[in-house]
Design brief:
- It contains two helices and four strands; from the N terminus they run E-H-E-H-E-E.
- It has 97 residues and is of the alpha/beta class.
- The chain has a single domain (3-90), classed as 3-Layer(aba) Sandwich (Rossmann fold), CATH 3.40.50.
- A four-stranded parallel β-sheet has the order 3-2-1-4, with helices on one face.
- Helix 1 (14-24) runs parallel beside helix 2 (46-66).
Length: 97
């Protein structure tokens, strides 16, 4: 069984990371939207709604492409203290020109 952590940052890099996740063919995926505020997920604001929709869309896309069991979080890596993954994938960090 392969357990993957997919760390999503800015939304403009989502498609690249989704392709990398699909290529890895994991059995289980934990999705972390790293640029999100953990409390924002339960917030009734438009920003909270947008974050929930993005997270749900990412989870759905990963499940469709891989058939993996998917769970999602928004916030930061500290939420996963003590969790173990076979592999971690993250969007590339943008480089200044």
């Amino acid at each position: 069984m392969s357990d993957l952590l997919a760390i999503f940052g800015p939304a403009d890099a989502d498609s690249e990371l989704l392709a990398a996740v699909a290529a890895y063919r994991p059995d289980r995926v934990t999705v972390l939207v790293a640029d999100g505020d953990a409390e924002l997920v339960s917030d009734e604001s438009s920003a909270g709604e947008a974050l929930r929709e993005r997270l749900a869309g990412l989870m759905s896309a990963i499940e469709r492409r891989t058939g993996a069991t998917v769970m999602g979080l928004a916030g930061d890596r500290a939420q996963l203290l003590g969790w173990r993954f076979d592999r971690e994938l993250a969007a590339p960090v943008p480089v200044a020109a």
